Structure formats: structure tokens, C-alpha cells
Amino acid sequence: MRRRLPLFVALAAAFSAGIFSARWMPAAEAQADVPLVPTIIHVGQLSDDDLSAARPGVDLRSRTYVNKPGATVAVQSGNVFKHYHRDADEIQFIVEGSGSFWLGDKQQQIGPGDLIIIPKGTAHAGSMATTGRFKAIAIKTPPQAADDTHRLD
Questions:
Q1: Which of 50, 78, 99, 101 is the most buried (most CB within 10 A)?
Q2: How many domains does the chain have?
Q3: Any idea what the CATH number is for the domain that residue 55 is in?
Q4: Phi and psi for 59 in degrees, rounded to 5?
Q5: How far apart (Å, rounded) are the C-alpha atoms in residues 141 and 144?
Q6: How far apart are CA 115 and CA 93, in angstroms?
Q7: pLDDT at position 42, please?
Q8: Structural domain range at position 91
Q9: Where is the signal peptide (predicted)?
Q10: Residue 30 in contact with residue 147, Cβ under 8 Å?
């Protein structure tokens, strides 16, 4: 169990940033529940194009690697607007990039190796990278519904 937890946490963190808005981002549930296969994903070697195609006006790129009824795991790259999820908890593990990130009512500095725990209802993101691009492993549990991204200004 202890060996699986760090991998699960890291992968979930990447996914959570990927499904930020039904209007701007693909929904987590858009992908079928696919059986897991033994896989090693070299997250540091993934380019933005490996994650998803560029979209006008959207900086975030995301690819879901695990989509199960209890959670989703994705790798995400880029900056996102400040928002919250009403029904999904989110965990992000920062792989690359450093800069600022809103968590609750505080803007904090983050960088590689940081693990961000985001309970449902917590304002987060509004990220601004100062070094490189943010790349994260995002986990959402339960999987985020397409209409569960609530933008904050």
C-alpha cells in the first residue's frame, strides 16, 4: 500500500488540473473506464503536444492516464485560472516549473516536488509560472463532473 500511494498521489495531481472547465477543457468522464495495464510514464519527458493539442485561448494541456469510478489521474502542463470544484477533491504533485499558486485565500510559491492537497470547495490555481512551465500529476476523487469547475475572478 505504501509503495502505491506516492504514485497514485502523483498521477492524481496531474489529472486534477486538466479538467478545469467544461467549456475550455475536456471533461474527465469523457474517457471510458479502461482496464489498467502495467505502465511506466516518464512524466518529465512528456511534451505539451504529448498531452493534448493546443487550443486557442487555453494554456493548459492535459492527458488522462487513469480513469476509474473512484478517481482520475492525469498529467497537466501550463497555467490555469483560479477556480474551485464543488464535488471533487484534488491532489497535485508538481513535477516542473515554479511560481505562484492560489490555495484558499493565500497565494503561495510552489515548485518541483511540492504536493498540493485541495479539498472540494477550496479556491485554487490562478497559477503564474516564473520559471519554466508548470507540469503536474493531478488526481481527482471522485472523478470531476464536466460542470464542476467554478471560475473565480
A1: 101
A2: 1
A3: 2.60.120.10
A4: -85, -30
A5: 7
A6: 5
A7: 96
A8: 4-151
A9: 1-22
A10: no
Decide if 89 contacts 98 (C-beta within 8 A).
no
pLDDT at 32: 60
Torsion sign across C-alpha atoms 15, 20, 86, 124: positive
22/4 Cα distance (integer angstroms): 30
Eight-state DSSP code of residue 11 = H
Q: Which three cell numbers stand for residue 47?
A: 511534451
Beta partners for residue 99, in sequence order: 110, 129
Burial of 58 (0-12, 13-18, 19+ CB in 10 A): middle
